[in-house]
Amino acid sequence: MSPPSRFGDKVFYWLTLSMAFAVVLLVILIGWQLTLGSSYAVRRFGFGFLTGSAWDPVAEEFGALPFIYGTAVSSLIALLIAVPLSVATAVYLTELAPLWIRQPIVSLVEMLAAIPSVILGLWGIFVMVPWLRDYIFPFLQRILGWTPFFSGPIYGPSMLAGGIIVAIMILPIITSVSREILRSVPDLQREAAYALGATRWEVTRIAVLSYARKGLFGAVILGLGRALGETMAVTMVIGNTPQIAASLFKPGYTLASVIANEFTEATSDMYLQALFEIGLVLFGVTILVNLLAQLLLKTITAGADPGRVQ
Amino acid sequence: MNKQTDRKDHHSWRKFKSGIVSGLTFCSAVLVIAPLALVFVYVLKSGIGAINFDFFTNLPKPVGVAGGGMANAIVGTLVLLALASVIGIPVGVLGGVFLAEYGTARVNAVLRFIADVLNGVPSIIWGVVVYGLIVLRFKSFSAYAGGLALALIMIPLILRTTEEVILLVPVGYREAALALGIARWKTILQIVVKTASRGIVTGILLALARVGGETAPLLFTAFGNRFWNHDLSEPIAALPLQIFTYAISPYDDWHRQAWAGALVLVTGVFCVNVLVRIVTRVRTASA
Fold it and tell me: How many structural domains comprise chain B?
């Protein structure tokens, strides 16, 4: 590619180049703003910020542990629900389903991805949470009440409700990325297994799933990245109480939720600083998780770009 | 003989197992799309009763006063999308042009990687960043800040789709134009981008539909406003923000309004998605 010689070409080249490198600038911008905004808090609380469990804005005591715990647990619940369903759906869509039904289901999954988070949250508050509280939670308590996770009084808005709504949010992305991964498995793999007399499921298990394992793991990690940062829907159903409780029926709080709820109410500078630091923690974790996901996906599907799938 | 029946039994068992798995994965697919149906049904059911002409023309009424609408929020969302487009579209499209037309393989791989990672940044983080960048500096929540937050989310989205569709334009088009002595930048803008314009517009529309439903980045940038916004450096209302405020309020009347707002928002987002799907289908059918 020869360097552009004409003046117009030069201008256009540098114009597009600077726009493309804007993405680099954006990453720097995020890191810089978050570090700048939280510098005093970082200096004052140090590492204790991550391990402290007191969140008392009046006494200017800030510990992020309840939020880290809430984010981790709600994301874990979400993955436990969403991963089997999404991967199974992806398998169905690429390997097992009749051809005519595939495209309609794919379109519907994309539609689910298009539902704004706040609307899912609205539905969560008024439809899902009452339903869980009246039917599902008592049922879970009856059969699993002997474990600490499902014991104690039942609240509507709870860690479990938060996890379930996050699961719904990440179903589409795990499904569509897994589908891309499975589609990138060469047909030769399948043909070889068929030639040995394998049934459809055996072909899928032996030739497809084992081949795509690493990529599917990437899809799951990408889903985890979205789960960690999910804000509105989870804020609306998780109960927003900074506590670390074993029971999943108790309300919780996540990193993203505390920013959403308390940012505009931050009355003191240190309070705002602490919220910026929460943002820094959230950004740090999601960027690491996303880097890992992209690396896993890139090695599998050279050429295809699953990262773009919304 | 015995061995043969064994094998036959074994084979039908394997086929049966395959059938079971097909059934189970089908059930998973149904469960995955069930939330879509449920949300859609409830939004439609609860929204349609609350929606009326006033909803589109009136300002929100104070608590206890019946009626009122979200006219300012609907207009506010459109204003925010327009502001976001002013920054997001040129940067995204031109950046995508660079990746498709100029960038070397290694540079592109890095930029693409960064764009994909940026797409995974939680949208609330963009709100915090723009708060630090604009709101703290100018000491006011503003429509500009909200628009910028949405624009920053749009950039990596549009960049990736633009690059992809431009790469689909046959090399022959470029060669033909260059052979006529047309400058490279004119070739790119007038031949390549024009040929790919439908795909680029599709990408832009999808990005707009995505950020149009965003709430988290607007919470402390656009902030929301109960009245009309007459100055873009002042807080502005947005549909998702209004839905959020009303949804978590304790008032039944506001809940009804939230459902009506949700119906309008969902209809807008779905219309864009369906439209885009139809347009892209026509394109692939004719290609």
Answer: 2
| B149 and B278 share one domain | yes
Structural domain including B244 reads 54-286
The owner of tokens 């600490």 is A148
> How far is Cα of residue A274 from the mean position of the Cα atoms in its chain?
23
Residues B21 and B122 in one domain: no
Q: Given its phi and psi angles, is residue A139 left (phi above 0), alpha (psi -120 to 50 degrees) or beta?
A: alpha
Phi, psi of A244 (to 5 degrees): -110, 105
Q: A165: closest CA among A204, A136, A130, A125?
A: A125
Q: Do A6 and B132 touch (CB under 8 A)?
A: no
Assign residue B125 the CATH number of its domain: 1.10.3720.10
pLDDT tens track for A107-123: 999 999 999 999 999 99
ipTM at complex level: 0.92
Query: What part of B 7-36 touches A (C-beta under 8 Å)?
Result: 14-15, 17-18, 21-22, 24-26, 28-29, 31-33, 35-36
Q: Does A230 touch chain B (CB under 8 A)?
A: yes
* pTM for the full predicted model: 0.93
